[in-house]
Amino acid sequence: MKVTFPHMGNLWIALKALFEKLGHEVIPPPPVTRNTIELGVRYAPEFACLPLKVNVGNFIEGLEKGAETVVMLGGSGPCRFGYYAQVEREILKDLGYSFNIIVVDPPMGDWQRFLQDLQPLGNGCGWREVWDALTLAWEKIKALDQIHRTLLKVQFYNPRVTWKCYDHAVKAINGVDDKKLLQRATSEGIRKLALFSENQNGTFAPLKIVIVGEVFMMWEPYVNLDLEKALGGMGVEVIRSAYLSDWICDNVLFNPRHMLRRIKFKKAAKPYLNCFIGGHGWESVGESVLYARKKIDGIIHVLPFTCMPEIVAQSILPAVSRDYHLPVLTLSLDEHSAQAGFLTRIEAFVDLIRERKQITA
Amino acid sequence: MGLKIGIPRALLYYDYFLLWNTFLESLGVEIVLSQKTNKDIVNNGIKSAVEETCLPVKVFLGHVHNLAQKKVDYLFIPRYISVEPRRFLCPKFMGLPYMIKHLIPGIPPVLNVDIDMRKQKGELPVEMYRLGRLFTFNPWKIRMAYRLARENQKSFKKMMLQGFLPEEVFFNGTEKSKALKRTVLKENDQDRNVLRIGLIGHSYNLYDKYINMNILEKLQEMGVQIITSKMFSEAEVNSGLKKLQKDIFWTFGKETIGSAFYLLEERITHGIILLVSFACGPDSIIMDLIDRAYKRAGIPCLTLVLDEHSAEGGVITRLEAFIEMLKWRKQKNEGYFSTHGKPVDCPESPF
Ligand code: SF4
Ligand code: SF4
């Protein structure tokens, strides 16, 4: 099968490894560009949230490159994401593509259906091969997140060079297809990036800004207009409140350490929002509170325009900001968001917290 | 004197007011409603809300403002998570009480009630019992109040199927209420001259005259017969849903897409109008699926997006143009209804 899938940050590297191990030909969609978004905007419902539009753009570009099968994640609500694949299928059908779509819907107790859905992806491989493919993909996800975490700790020293190092490491990770080599590539990348902080004598204390919000917007640099890089350029240390590997530990693997963290954020969120509201809304509020208690200087909340759970979070975050005396900037982004106005807003925000810090220092 | 509890006349008020009213009044509570939606209410709501919130939630906030001035002891804003197994309402309903508390400072305390019927066991929902205990210690009284409320709600649902308007039923009782008369729609072959339209949307968009710019009356003035998505029985909705590959996990989504697909299958109407709130998450997806299906079948479908900026004049013009087009089409295809149940070859709709 010639497989394609949607983009989200570096996820494609792991998916590519996974499907190649299973013996498929992988045709990753070209990186997200203006063209992707324009395609999505043209064919997706006008008021859909941005991730859906980007997905549609990815699929069209992937199918144009020769893919025949689209793999997409499903869900069980209450947010739109769970129904994305259904609309996407209809859109592509109406456009006249002949393709096959495999939707990975959570089993919800019905494991038989779940396995049946996934069977074509298994490609007749034995359990052992499937296991190897899955673990390799998982290791890659973890490795990419580790590299990214390291990058964010050093990028403000020298954005240009650190990002170059980072890109290099990512490429190396993409190139290996064996766990041992992967480990080597990862530690090599981390070592090189860590050098940047060792060369400093520790006098420079950057501002610390935490990014919370909807996950796609946090993880896909094209749609958040390279927020992290922009902040790095302003001498800010960025902390991403969640990574893909965290999400998987939380929602798929139920990793005990992450479950503890979840209990903590739920407790922190309690006075503000005491329930699941779909998407990442609860996390946005809870993590904001948890970070607000630490030594950070500001929070940036990113969401796609009209995102339901994040609008709830956005309505509540001003209260967190008030209670903890912490500036919060909400960035609601859509296909029309332009780099220029965006940068001015971030600069103004960074200036504000810098001044605040000088006054309180 | 009993406690005074305020209920905002917005959102699920149009679905569950009778239930709560009966239940709470049987327990000796006095219910205070906010005014009908008006300009002030909407403006107050807009001022308090985050800009990109959907209009119905903004309107809801306005109603809360309105109630806050009425000296009530409590506000009744349940957190609706789910009203049936396997389905949710919308993320915003789930966070609504919290949004209210943080967006509108200084309001009366909100009664915390979580409605989650996904795992309902036993006759009396635990949450309703908990709520009842606030007003009486007599469990029997609570049970009776609940039974009465449930009965009333059941007959309310039946009346909705027949085309009665919710507010008429709430305040005028069965006899005097005005209705859209669904029965006529079924006998479609007898009344060939009448144009029939499906009006698909959430209850608060269908029945709040201010939000929908009085579309029901306007259509009636144009001589159109209307069937709303609230006028379909469970069975009809479910038969419409069969066309979907994946079960839908929103209750409103189920109603709208189920009824729209049912209409499409049965060919009862000449066209449909989709009432959508601007920035409504579920609708952005559901209504698109409906629109696609109608386009493929060649049946006209008009989407009206409601937001605080929609100008009444513009909406009327679009409605009129749509109705004109339907009339013209109807004349052209008089044989349309005789091919009951089969797709008709029609040119692609210009809308
Ligand atoms: S979380 Fe937000 S962006 Fe994601 S599907 Fe839901 S509404 Fe869309
Ligand atoms: S269903 Fe739509 S209109 Fe209703 S509250 Fe949710 S987003 Fe708003």
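qc> The radius of gyration of chain B is 21 Å.
qc> done
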